[in-house]
Design brief:
single chain; mainly beta; 5-stranded antiparallel sheet
Length: about 300
């Protein structure tokens, strides 16, 4: 995803007929450091959001399917992903498994927090609709910044967000150079870099183009300083854009490119105004005041 502070292109969490592969992350003071999250943090499902109805396809050619991206607080090992790992329960009590499960469109080495489920999950007008998603298989995961993969057992089910709901932030963390150094779409300005993950694909509301100046101007990263005070920093630019050739394959990640942050400052939140970003269904975001979990 190339960087843009002023120009636009398209982000929308839709699967294409090709599957590309990778993983990753980075930071300075308050950043995730290698091995820092190997212990003490359990794998959690952060969101499961219905993205499109009959609008996507699987790599082997099955088309007119729905997609439902699932985000995690950890990296998921691509080779461990199987369609049998996930069960979607519909509003009428019936269950279904995805036709395919991909790490695409988010496919870089520092983007493996998302698994895009694609299948026949429901009908938004007449029902049934997807009600919950549960991970029941044998995925392998590692903490962001962690060094070791480990087996993930059955996780609690999570409510599926409706098709008409807008995108929302599900995670944010400071990137470390170890993970970020080979990112082809990384920030090219600034010295502190923040990954912001959303529940679904992202394009500018309501043009469907890549996000530009309005989004860059609205984003703020909130840090707690060493003296206990909180200060907001505006990004110089937003990166991780234009990573695929079409808007239909845009993903759910933004990188905030910040100037120097005071030594000892810790990332505590991300804010952005309403009606700036839309999901693949064209639904705009609400104002976001995301509190970063302590790690």
């Amino acid at each position: 995803m190339r960087q843009s502070s002023l120009v636009g292109a398209a982000l929308a969490m839709v699967a294409s007929t090709a599957m590309v592969g990778s993983i990753g992350a980075m930071g300075s003071s308050g950043a995730v450091t290698p091995g820092s999250r190997d212990k003490g943090e359990k794998v959690k499902v952060l969101s499961a959001s219905w993205g499109t109805d009959n609008g996507v396809s699987c790599p082997r050619g099955v088309s007119n399917l729905d997609n439902l991206p699932v985000t995690f607080n950890s990296f998921i090992k691509r080779s461990s992903i199987q369609v049998t790992d996930f069960v979607i329960t519909r509003s009428d009590g019936t269950t279904v498994r995805p036709t395919c499960a991909l790490q695409f469109p988010p496919d870089e080495r520092d983007e493996r927090q998302t698994v895009n489920l694609i299948g026949n999950f429901g009908t938004p007008v007449t029902g049934p609709i997807p009600a919950t998603v549960q991970m029941v298989g044998a995925l392998r995961a590692k903490a962001i910044g962690g060094l070791r993969w480990h087996r993930v057992g059955k996780l609690p089910s999570i409510k599926a967000d409706p098709l008409a709901g807008g995108p929302f932030i599900t995670d944010a963390w400071q990137l470390t150079e170890r993970l970020y150094k080979n990112d082809q779409n990384r920030c090219t300005t600034g010295s502190t870099f923040i990954r912001v993950m959303w529940s679904n694909g992202l394009t500018a509301y309501a043009t469907g183009e890549e996000v530009g100046a309005a989004v860059t101007d609205s984003y703020r990263a909130v840090f707690k300083l060493a003296n206990g005070k909180r200060t907001s920093f505006a990004p110089l630019a937003v990166a991780d854009l234009y990573d695929h050739s079409t808007a239909a394959n845009a993903d759910n990640m933004h990188d905030l490119c910040l100037d120097d942050i005071p030594r000892g400052a810790k990332l505590r939140g991300i804010t952005i105004g309403a009606d700036l970003i839309q999901d693949p269904n064209g639904d705009p975001n609400r104002a976001q005041h995301y509190g970063v979990p302590r790690r």
